[in-house]
Design a protein that fits this description.
- The protein is mostly helical.
- It has one domain (23-103, 129-165): dinb family like domain (Four Helix Bundle (Hemerythrin (Met), subunit A)).
- It contains seven helices and two strands, in the order αααααββαα.
- The chain has helices at 10-33, 38-42, 53-71, 86-100, 105-108, 129-154, 161-165; strands spanning 115-120, 123-128.
- α1 runs antiparallel to α3 (53-71), α1 (10-33) runs parallel beside α6 (129-154) and α3 (53-71) runs antiparallel to α6 (129-154).
Length: 168
């Protein structure tokens, strides 16, 4: 039996974007309570050659909305990538979730063999739907959500595994 492309993607994206929003709220609260300029956290990185928190959130958002749109045969919406505050990052997570909630199973299911073309950093990539979702999108999405969590945790925000996984 082939797993449902919809159920392997949209609910997972919505759940983790919601969990990411809760992690960001804790980051904002931490900055306020510790009298830390929030931009310090927004611009923090785990290592100098890694992207900062804001960019991790933007890429997680882009990955989720891009996957849903491409599988459904739509053009992914473009967001400005100019978020520089916790409220702006939270608005982006909300906007991403709202977009994801517009998809129905019939738009995504049956795309296992759909050809997906991407241009990333000047490189052209071609996938079939299921390998695109399972081997490219989901690992990339979880990497950026995890890295956002790790940046905040590394900077002293009191987060645990339950914050990452969310409520069941």
């Amino acid at each position: 039996m082939t797993p449902s492309m919809y159920h392997a993607s949209i609910p997972a994206f919505i759940r983790m974007m919601g969990n990411l929003a809760e992690v960001l709220k804790k980051g904002a609260t931490h900055a306020t309570s510790r009298k830390i300029d929030p931009t310090v956290l927004i611009n923090s990185r785990l290592f100098p050659d890694m992207l900062p928190l804001a960019r991790q959130v933007q890429i997680a958002s882009d990955t989720a909305k891009g996957c849903a749109a491409r599988l459904a045969g739509q053009e992914p919406p473009k967001f400005e990538d100019n978020e520089s505050t916790f409220p702006e990052l939270l608005a982006r997570t909300d906007k991403t979730v709202a977009f994801l909630k517009t998809f129905k199973p019939g738009q995504i299911d049956g795309t296992e063999d759909k050809t997906i073309h991407l241009k990333i950093g000047g490189e052209s990539l071609t996938f079939k739907g299921m390998p695109y979702l399972l081997n490219f999108v989901l690992p990339n999405f979880y990497f950026h959500v995890t890295t956002a969590y790790d940046i905040l945790r590394h900077n002293g925000v009191e987060l645990g595994k339950k914050d990452y996984l969310g409520k069941f």
